[in-house]
Amino acid sequence: MRLKHYALFLLITLAYNLKAQQNLFRGNNNYIISKTSNNGLGAGNALQFSSPNRYIDCGTSSSLNITGSMTIELWINPSQNLGIGQWDRLVHRYYPTGYYFGGRAGATNALAVVLNGDLNTAVTPNNTVVPNTWQHVAFTYDVVSKTITIYRNGLAVSTTIWNGTITGSTNNSLTLSAASEAYNGMMDEVRIWNICRSAAQILANYNTTVPINSSGLVAYYKFDEGSGATTSNSISNDSNGSLINSPSWIVPSTAPIN
Hints:
By secondary structure, this protein is mainly beta.
């Protein structure tokens, strides 16, 4: 009798482990998780930018005027292809002298970085981004090695050497989406760092929260409010975000990351 119970236990354990492995990976070894599962990403709230001119104004704080090494990362779920006739601004701090991260006009579902107005700073291959799918996107810039690396779901998709200099801007706001060439889709968990995070750190932390006292973290917009006309920067109140033209608060149901 004990032998039968033990055999049944082994069978159940093997089935559970096989199911867990199937749920963890799907094609190209990209992680699959749910934005609303217990994965450390917070309450599951997000913001929907569904029409032109809907964006978040995060102000002109000097902490966001980054002119050296940096890391920008966020979750996105685009409602349409990126790069169709516009640059699809995700994170933007006056690109002529600052930094930009988003789609690139004329490049279908590519991710682009623009530093100090150089429109050719860095870009990924077409179809890096998958529309109507939650995915984590990020870029790092190392001012010493002059290296820009762009990531999707914790994995590097392009590396570029850029020999320019960021002069910065003291009078212009950081925006999430923008008043023109606005992003169309959902967004969540925006983190901005004034250091270059390593590839290992990006992979280890892209699908979880990080402590708000993490070294180099200057802005962390979790979008956990779920209502209202502002969203908090968990790091500093001087760069809380004002919702312009009412981006919509949403709680996604199931959002697998492919």
